[in-house]
Design brief:
Layout lengths: L11 H17 L7 H13 L10 H6 L21 H30 L1
Helix pairs in contact: 1-2
InterPro entries: Gypsy_RT_Integrase-like, Integrase_cat-core, RNaseH-like_sf, RNaseH_sf
Protein name: Integrase catalytic domain-containing protein
GO molecular function: nucleic acid binding
C-alpha cells in the first residue's frame, strides 16, 4: 500500500495511541495544562503496564518478560535473584505469552477485517 508520510488517515495505530495518551494526560493536567510534560513519564508507564484488550497482556510484560517492579514491591535490603532453573521457566512463560498475544492479535485483526 502506498501512502503519504505523516498522513493521519494512513497511520491509524499511531493516531489512536496519541488520542489515548492525550485522554490520559488530560486527567492529570486539568488545573495546569502547560505542565503536561511533567506527567508524561508516569502516564506512559501506566499505559505500558496496563493489560491491553487485544493482546490480553501488558506491553511491558511482552517486551521485558516480567511484570514491572513497583516501589511498593521492593523491601529494604531485598535482592531479586533467580534460583536454579527459574530462568528457563520465565523464558518458557514469556514465549507462551508471546504466542498467545499473537493469537489474540490475529483474532482481533480478523474481526476488524470482517467489520471493515
Amino acid at each position: 500500500m502506498r501512502t503519504t508520510a505523516y498522513r493521519p488517515q494512513s497511520d491509524g495505530l499511531v493516531e489512536r495511541f496519541n488520542r489515548t495518551l492525550c485522554d490520559m494526560l488530560a486527567c492529570y493536567v486539568v488545573d495546569e495544562p502547560e505542565e503536561w510534560d511533567r506527567y508524561l513519564p508516569f502516564v506512559t508507564f501506566a499505559y505500558n503496564t496496563s493489560k491491553q484488550a487485544t493482546l490480553k497482556d501488558s506491553p511491558f510484560y511482552l517486551l521485558y518478560r516480567r511484570e514491572p517492579i513497583l516501589p511498593n514491591d521492593i523491601k529494604i535490603n531485598h535482592h531479586y535473584e533467580m534460583e536454579g532453573n527459574q530462568h528457563e521457566e520465565y523464558s518458557r512463560q514469556w514465549k507462551k505469552a508471546q504466542e498467545l498475544a499473537n493469537q489474540h492479535l490475529f483474532k482481533a485483526q480478523t474481526k476488524q477485517k470482517k467489520y471493515y
